[in-house]
Amino acid sequence: MSAQKRPWDGLISADDQKAYRAAGFGRPSGMGKRPALLIIDVQYRTVGTTPMPFWEAIKEFPTSCGDVGWNAVRNIVPLLAEFRRRKWPVMYPHVAPKVATEGGRLAEKVPAIMNIAAKGYKFVKEIAPEPGDVLLPKKHPSAFFATALASHLIDAGADTLIVAGCTTSGCVRGSVVDGFSYNFRVTIPEECVYDRGAVSHAVNLFDMSEKYADVMPVADVIEKLKAIP
């Protein structure tokens, strides 16, 4: 793997990282032979219609993560291109437009999710779905909860999940934990996920890397994908 500072360096102490190593956490799980790409919630409501700093972006959509979202989009582009080239399955778990009766507990916790303009629910053009991709509207953080994702993955013969999108601490994490629980191998390209909070992003990446997924730079992920026969 390429030498690169990890997202959590400077936040997770050396002693804490050593404690996980001593307990045996963080061992790589590797990839299988049939990966599927999950692009979770990469919609204009989470990045804004144009790249802007966070405090400007939330004036357009209160759920936007701003520039960090667009940085992730730029990194998802070559990852998605490799999946297109290999004709591997690409799936889009996403939040569908909400009506007043559909907010559930999350709407009570975060009322802003009920006030998103229609444009916000559109997929970001640079990495939008194409015919043959699987679209999975969801109402909850995990892409697996109350959706047909597991069935689609079984139909595709997938054994490995490459997870991109947002937010790292929310829908990405919920989907990674459930994917791991369904016995899929899980890889997170660290530049392809994003969150509105840098600390939450980094800490959750570290925790997932120790317990549920392989977390690595997207260049290394693409290199490993290219090595699959």
Description:
It is a single chain. The protein has one domain (33-226): Rossmann fold (3-Layer(aba) Sandwich). The chain has helices at 14-23, 44-47, 54-60, 67-86, 104-109, 149-156, 168-181, 198-211, 218-226; strands at 35-40, 90-95, 134-138, 160-166, 185-189, 193-194, 214-216. Strands 1, 2, 3, 4, 5, 6 and 7 form a seven-stranded parallel beta sheet that branches. The model has no long low-confidence stretch (mean pLDDT 93). The protein has nine helices and seven strands; from the N terminus they run H-E-H-H-H-E-H-E-H-E-H-E-E-H-E-H. With 229 residues, the chain is an alpha/beta fold.
Total domains: 1
Number of helix segments?
9
Largest sheet descriptor: 7 strands, parallel
Q: Shape, please?
A: globular
SS class: alpha/beta
Helix-strand sequence: HEHHHEHEHEHEEHEH
The N- and C-terminal alpha carbons lie at a distance of: 19 Å
Which architecture per CATH? 3-Layer(aba) Sandwich
- Report low-confidence residues grouped into runs of 5 or more: none
CATH class category = Alpha Beta
The overall pLDDT average reads 93
Strand content: 5-15%
Q: What is the β-strand count? A: 7
Binned, the helix content reads 40-55%
CATH topology: Rossmann fold
Q: Provide the CATH superfamily.
A: Isochorismatase-like
Radius of gyration: 17 Å
